[in-house]
Structures are given as structure tokens and as C-alpha cells.
Amino acid sequence: MRQDNHSSNLDFVLLGVNGPQEQEDIFFILFLFIYPIILIGNLLIILAIHSDIRLHNPMYFLLANLSCVDIFFSSVTIPKMLVNHIVGSKVISFGGCLAQMYFMIDMANTDSYILAAMAYDRAVAISRPLHYTTIMSPRACVLLVAASWVIGSANALPHTLLTASLSFCGDREVVNFYCDIASLLKLSCSDIQFNVKMMYLGVAVFSMPFIGIIISYIRVFSTVLKVPSTKGVRKAFSTCGSHLTVVSLYYGTVMGMYFRPLTNYSLKDAVVTVMYIAVTPMLNPFIYTMRNQDMKAALGKLFKKRIST
Ligand SMILES: *[C@@H]1O[C@H](CO)[C@@H](O)[C@H](O)[C@H]1NC(C)=O
User: Fold this and answer.
1) Beta-bridge mates of residue 156
2) Which of 44, 46, 65, 73 should be mutated for ligand 1, with most atoms under 8 A from CB?
3) Does 6 map to a domain?
4) 62 C-alpha vs ligand 1 centroid, how far in Å?
5) Which of 2, 114, 137, 238 has the fewest CB atoms inside 10 Å of its own CB, making it the most exposed?
6) Ligand 1 center–CA 60 separation, angstroms
């Protein structure tokens, strides 16, 4: 392992996968390829939605917001990782570490609540189509999005402040690609009982939207089973597949991350972390455009406009 002789005793060390050099190189190359795809894919989604008037409805505004969060989410961790690998350093300042932790919790929660808002949107569209425009009014839509951002920050702030007040006396090596709360708690020499309780509370706040998503989809499926042949219902239902795929990917990886013993971090955990911070944000744009004619048309128009100007 390389030693950083310029690291102060307040800095933390991001060990990444903590394996042989070849493993580290593989993860570096992976992130190097995935990160631009995340940026371009999600930016295209936002541009396509905003430039096509037919996509100016709640479902697509929520999708654009999800893309926006995904860009922030992956930018909190991946650039730092790439830069550290290039300059051959593993150091991250204590402030940088806390900032990473704050924004990761913030963005993960915002992501989670926006996914729930999207499920709610589909549930209203399918089970109460006549009231859709009144329930999902522009104002309601802005409120849902704003609430997602507020809950994200509100859930991130206490954990960050609590972690900032801990003492770190010995080991400052984080065995992960970024400073996550569990790794930091493990390194502290203070009494962390309260922090751990708060962390579980935080995971509960994070998971609440998942229950909302399940309830929304129970409503969706019971409606579709009752009136399977209505054209409007079928069209609305066609977008549910993409959303369900994203939801399963997202919560699947989160569960893979948090329901593991905190003591040993293996290559398998590293792969799950990569799924969480890179693969999910990368796949979202593809999942939503693949079988969606409206999105494809909007993207096509976007490119034509760019070429002609
Ligand atoms: C997020 O959603 C709001 C409310 O619908 C919308 O006005 C805004 O344009 C969206 N943001 C993005 C980046 O699309």
C-alpha cells in the first residue's frame, strides 16, 4: 500500500477496494468509463424533457428531477476517486469526508423520495385518471419535488453534525470508495451508541418511500386487473415497467449495502457499492428511454436541432 507522506493527522484515507493494484486499476477504469455516461445520459434526459412541450407533464418533470439528483449523487464520490487514483494519493480531508457523507445521505434520500413521488404519480394516473390533472397539479408537483429535497437535507444534517463531533484517535482508514457513515462510526473512539441509533432512524426515514411505492403499485395492479382492456390505462401502465426496474435496482443495491456485517468489507461489497453509486445512475436514462416512444422522439428532435444550428 502506498504511503502518503503529505497527509496531516486530521486527514482520512480512502482505501477503496483495498485489494491488489490490479483490482484498484479495474475499478478505476470502470468509473472512468461510467462517469461520463452518467453525466451525458442524464443531461440528455433533462434537455430532451425541457425542450419537448409534449413531455411537460408531472411524470417527465419528476424523471428530469431524478436525473438531476443522479448527476449530483455520482459527482459526490466518483470525481474524488478518479483524481485520487490519478495523483496516487488516498487522502481526503476531514471536511471533505464529512461533505461526502452529507451529500451522499442527502442525495440518496432525495432519490428515494422522488422515486416514491413517481410511483404515486403512476398510481393516480391509473387508478384515478379523471382526477389526474387536478391531483398532480403543477403546484402539487413542485411541492412533491421540494419536499424530497427538504427531507433529504433534513435527514443528512443530524448525522453529519453527530459524526463531526466524534473523536478519531487511531485508525483513519476508510475501507470504501467514499466516506460513508458506517465506516466513519466504526473508526471513531467515542461512544457511538447514540449515533448508531440515529443511523437506524435515518435508514428508516430513507426506507419509508419504499413502503409508499409498494402501496402505489398495489393500487396500480388492482386497477389494471379490474379494467385490463382500457387503452388509457394500458398506456399509463406501460411506463410502470421502467419505473419498477429502477426501483428494484435502487433498493436492491441499498439493501445489499446496509444489510451486511460492518466488520469485513470484501470485494463483493465493493461491487455492490459500485452498483449503487455508479451503475444505477448510469442505467436510469437507458431504462426510461428504451421502450418509451415519446422520450425517443424528444431525443431525436434534440439532436436534429443541435445539428441544424
Ligand atoms: C423538477 O420538477 C419541477 C416541478 O415539476 C419542475 O418545475 C422542474 O423543472 C424540474 N427540474 C428539472 C431539472 O427538470
Assistant:
1) none
2) 65
3) no
4) 7
5) 2
6) 9
